[in-house]
Design goal:
heterotrimer, A mainly alpha, B mainly alpha, C mainly alpha, A: Cytochrome C Oxidase, Chain A, B: mainly alpha, 2 domains, 3 helices, binds copper (II) ion
């Protein structure tokens, strides 16, 4: 049953001052140093990019309804999947949970007034927007067709599209990730409220910390790889060009050194969100707190040791392939541990199926499928068969859409009352969650089958016998698209018309629920202190603050 | 203020002199043929110089554990990158190249 | 970070104490330096790989570089690190005059380094060993590079220009930071209780020095000079 209805809106004569109404005017937003306002700036920006990237996906799925291609020229099709990948990965998924929810919640959850470096935080948003502007320039001036991976020498020599602005855009955006990660690490180390020990922190913070490690140590390698690509393309100097003595695999090594861990930049924060939602809506202490926390850090470290699994068929040495394969299996262990722990938390819990919980349950199932199919790809021999097919496309969409986007939406629903101070319409939210779940599976499950049957990815045409599954996938995509539009509408609606949420509509534990919604500018009216573990749902009747 | 010990002036001077001596040493060593050890000596001296700068000029000697962890993590991740890339390139020759395909004798499957 | 007003410690609103503020700043810069290690790390990886693959060409090309200028520049930069370390000490002990003087000295040494580096770049243009723009060595230079293969020699010079160029860029940023620091020092913003900006800039400056400590042997001393 929804706990939302148990809290009556607090009758107050005048709206108390909070971070939203404390100042007005565009200057108070564009020059703000308040982490909560910066989170909202990010929210607006990434929502914009999400729908741009989504539009490219829709065009692709329409095109693939017909085996001969229904919509665009093959060259355009190449640009569609490239721009879809670049925008969704670098401008939506990577900043989604860290820069929006993380930015909003990290100081609130540890009981601080702000992040350690508020100005760097604002700077990171401007850097993100600048990078986005470069990328949009490349979209408007004809797009890129290299695939989001920018493999050399195609990208450095042969591609006849806007590689330079796109690569520079990603290069620039990388620094915004680095600043966010740096800010989070310092904040979590140095700004915790009295009594907030490491093992009393909400698990969301552990996942943010682990994500930040990857931001800080991985992103610069991608930056330098893209910068070298830029120089290579401008000057034709030859570091990655075999004809000039260079080595294209070096680019792949540098690229995947970041871009495999980047998968965990997308999924770790979602795992953190799930670790918050599951105990709250099971009314139970989370099972295996420490193991979940440490497994986040373990994932962050191990994720740097497996990048070669993207290069099994590229001419990388077979022995290294073996090592990378074994290590890739290892990184599955901490991920599986988390799934077991969430499931154990559900066991004998008094579960309520509010919208955030629906997303969380969807996450657990879809992430498990995405993770298990990842093991197919981590083993050398099956990867040779499946590499470059739709199986891979389906696998990483189960992780990134079924996992990361589900986690993001779950988190948005869970914390929306805190962010906006208002409740969204629960019925619509549950409906949207169901539509998204159905649409998602209809879109991507057929792609597993297509890949297994041998349909290669990144082709504008396909043999006629694959049409049935492709049409299913396209139909699912249209359902998914509708599913994503509904929350946009009711979130916007609820900002003005939603019922007042009160400080703690879910009866959740955690410092962020002990301050009014929306929180005041400095987060807490009194400096908070912590005396209990997180997720103490068994012992205290929380929520009715 | 956080307890930041003030390093004696003498220490800074000694470290500085040591650094200059090491520059002379490493430059001089380049003129002597040591075979493969030229690289070892050059990088070894660079490592010592780095440690001197880190420990004394950058106060790593008096820093807290967290700073040590950060510095070690950076070094570890760099070695990870270089190490695994080299693991690939150095082990490529371990398998002899398969015989080239010939169109006259198609491969037979058992 | 913090805004300081002369003579007292200003604590930014998000911090509880000056200790917390100081520790956050120091941790922040160390994490940033870890990022920089990985940023240069990509270049070091590529360099190490190609040096290993094409050792003769790299050794021959390395011998084209002027080892004397390289060594002098190393000494200049280490001296600037020394004066930078002393600047932090002057800030800690609240010696304002010495602080300003040492900062100026550090900047001068940094400028000398960049000057020498610029002269070396000029030499490369004279010798026609600038990749892509002007790579057509002649005469003696050609004779020394040819045995290892000109293509791979060009690769060496790619790395030479990228690595020293990126390093020089960091030097220029460092000079800018030092200049701001000098202005603040002249405005008597620092005292024994508040000197974190000097310390943080110092850490950055030393880090740039460490990068050069490795660039010098890697680029100038590879093949020996015997
Ligand atoms: Cu991967």
């Amino acid at each position: 049953m929804s706990t939302a209805t148990t809290v009556a809106p607090e009758p107050r004569a005048a709206t108390p001052l909070n971070y939203l109404n404390v100042e007005y005017g565009w200057r108070s937003w564009l020059f703000t140093k308040d982490h909560k306002r910066i989170a909202l700036l990010y929210l607006i920006s990434i929502t914009f990019y999400f729908f741009i990237g989504g539009a490219f996906a829709v065009l692709m799925r329409i095109h693939l309804i017909d085996p001969q291609g229904a919509l665009v020229q093959p060259e355009t099709y190449n640009k569609l999947f490239t721009m879809h990948g670049i925008i969704m990965i670098f401008f939506f998924l990577i900043p989604s949970i860290p820069s929006v929810l993380g930015n909003f919640l990290v100081p609130l959850m540890i009981g601080a007034r702000d992040l350690a470096f508020p100005r760097l935080n604002l700077l990171s948003w401007y850097i993100y927007m600048l990078g986005g502007a470069f990328t949009m320039y490349s979209v408007i001036h004809g797009g890129v067709d290299t695939g989001w991976t920018f493999y050399t020498p195609y990208s450095s020599t042969y591609a006849n599209s806007q590689v330079i602005p796109a690569a520079l855009g990603i290069f620039i955006t990388g620094f915004s990730s680095i600043l966010t990660g740096l800010n989070f690490i310092v904040t979590i180390h140095k700004m915790r409220a009295p009594g907030m020990t490491w093992f009393r922190m909400p698990l969301f913070l552990w996942s943010m910390y682990a994500t930040s490690i990857i931001f800080v140590l991985g992103t610069p390698v991608l930056a330098i790889a893209l910068f070298l690509l830029f120089l290579e393309r401008v000057f034709q100097v030859g570091i990655f060009t075999p004809a000039l003595g260079g080595d294209p695999l070096l680019f792949q090594h540098l690229f995947w050194f970041y871009s495999h861990p980047a998968v965990y930049i997308m999924i770790l924060p979602a795992m953190g969100v799930i670790s918050e939602i599951v105990p709250c809506f099971s009314r139970k202490r989370i099972f295996g707190y420490k193991v979940i926390g440490f497994s986040s850090v373990a994932i962050a470290v191990l994720s740097f040791l497996v990048w070669g699994h993207h290069m099994f068929v590229t001419g990388q040495s077979i022995y290294t392939g073996l090592v990378f394969s074994a290590l890739s299996f290892m990184v599955a262990i901490p991920s599986a541990i988390k799934v077991f722990n969430w499931t154990a938390t559900l066991y004998k819990g008094s579960i309520s199926y509010d919208a955030p919980m629906l997303y969380a349950l969807g996450f657990i199932g879809l992430f498990t499928m995405g993770g298990l199919t990842g093991l197919f790809l981590a083993s050398l021999s099956t990867d040779v068969q499946l590499n470059g097919t739709y199986f891979i496309v389906a696998h990483f969409h189960y992780i990134m859409v079924g996992g990361a986007v589900m986690g993001y939406l779950g988190g948005m629903h869970y914390w929306w009352p805190k962010i906006s101070g208002r409740l969204y319409p629960e019925i619509w939210a549950r409906l949207a969650a169901a539509i998204i779940f159905v649409g998602f599976n209809l879109t991507f499950f057929p792609q597993f089958m297509l890949g297994y049957l041998g349909m290669p990815r990144r082709y504008a045409f396909y043999p006629a016998e694959f049409q049935f599954l492709n049409v299913m996938s396209s139909a699912g995509a249209s359902i998914l698209g509708v599913g994503y539009l509904i929350p946009l509408i009711y979130f916007a609606w609820s900002m003005r018309y939603g019922p007042i949420a009160g400080p703690n509509p879910w009866g959740a534990t955690g410092l962020e629920w002990q301050t009014p919604s929306p929180p005041p500018k400095d987060n807490f009216e009194q400096p908070p202190a912590v005396a209990d573990e997180a997720y103490d749902y068994a012992h205290q009747e929380v929520g009715l603050v | 203020m956080a307890a930041q010990p003030i390093v004696p002036f003498r220490t800074y001077v000694l470290v500085f002199v040591a650094l200059l001596v090491l520059v002379a040493l490493t430059t001089g060593a380049a003129f002597i043929d040591l075979g493969p050890f030229n690289t070892v000596v050059a990088l070894g001296i660079a490592f010592i110089k780095m440690m001197l700068v880190l420990l004394f000029f950058m106060h790593l000697l008096h820093s807290n554990k967290l700073t040590h962890v950060t510095a070690v993590a950076a070094a570890f991740w760099l070695l990870l990158l270089i190490g695994l890339v080299f693991a690939d390139y150095t082990s490529r020759g371990w398998i002899p190249d398969p015989a080239p395909w010939s169109s006259s004798a198609p491969p037979t499957h058992p | 970070m913090s805004e300081a007003h002369s003579g007292r410690i200003h604590i930014a609103h998000q911090f509880e104490s000056s200790d917390q503020q100081h520790e956050a700043g120091t941790l922040g810069i160390w994490i940033f330096l870890a990022t920089e290690v990985m940023f240069f790390g990509g270049l070091f990886t590529g360099y190490a790989l190609d040096r290993w693959l094409y050792y003769p060409a790299f050794a021959a090309a390395s011998r084209i570089l002027d080892i004397r200028l390289g060594a002098i520049n190393t000494a200049v930069l280490l001296t600037s690190s020394f004066t930078m370390a002393l600047s932090v000490r002057a800030a800690q002990t609240a010696k304002r005059g010495a602080l300003a003087l040492l900062l100026i000295l550090t900047m001068l040494l940094g400028a000398v380094f960049l000057g020498i580096k610029g002269f070396e770049y000029y030499q490369k243009f004279v010798e026609h060993v600038v990749p892509s723009l002007d790579f057509a060595p002649q005469g003696e230079v050609l004779a020394r590079l040819a045995p290892g293969g000109l293509g791979h020699a060009q690769l060496f010079f790619c790395f030479y220009f990228f690595m020293t160029g990126l390093h020089a860029l960091h030097m220029i940023v460092g000079l800018g930071l030092l200049f701001v620091l000098l202005l603040r020092a002249l405005g008597s913003e620092f005292n024994a209780g508040y000197y974190a900006p000097v310390e943080v800039t110092g850490l950055y400056w030393h880090f740039v020095d460490i990068i050069w400590i490795f660039l010098f042997p890697l680029l100038y001393l590879i093949g020996g000079r015997f």
